[in-house]
Amino acid sequence: MERVRPFRQRFFPPDRIFPTSAFLFAVILTHSGIFAGTGKRHFIDEKRVTFELPYDWEESELNADDVLAGYQSKDQTTSIFFKDMGVTTNATLSELMDALITGFEETFELKGEDNITTGVVKGPEGKTWAAISAVIEGNYDRGDKVFGVQFHVVIFDTGSRLYQVQASTVTPVEGYRARQIGEILKSIYARP
Prior knowledge:
Layout: H1 7-11, H2 14-32, E1 38-44, E2 49-54, E3 57-59, E4 67-73, E5 78-86, H3 93-107, E6 109-122, E7 128-141, E8 146-157, E9 162-170, H4 175-186, E10 189-190
Antiparallel strand pairs: 1-2, 2-10, 3-4, 4-5, 5-9, 6-7, 7-8, 8-9
């Protein structure tokens, strides 16, 4: 007579518990967004600007008229918009950023010091474009509710055009969201 194994041994044999558990753990982590890495490369403005977005982001329907492209996280707590600021002006990137921050002050109650840094955006054949970035935190009063927002703004000049990239997320900022925004901004590549 054939011996019947107990339920636990039939469906959870000891030699398959670890591989099954590891697989389920990986699926849960992947879908939770903790390891949501970059996905598809996107092209905008006649392929002058390209960047990578996390795989679970989608195109935003909240794009204003002056926005080249806008995207948001699936949970709609984080977004990024790309604007064409027009042809290069005589204003410095620092002056443009100051004007932008002044505009934020009209809509948001800003908190603390603005974290402004300079850097570059990668271009073809090893070329780089001057860039300035700022992390701006503030509160937005919607009337019935006040909520915190953190903006990551980059302005860069390709010599023929100026671009503004603005990512925003609600506060407190989750660690993986901050990493996603950083990865998107680092992945920007521009042609003149």
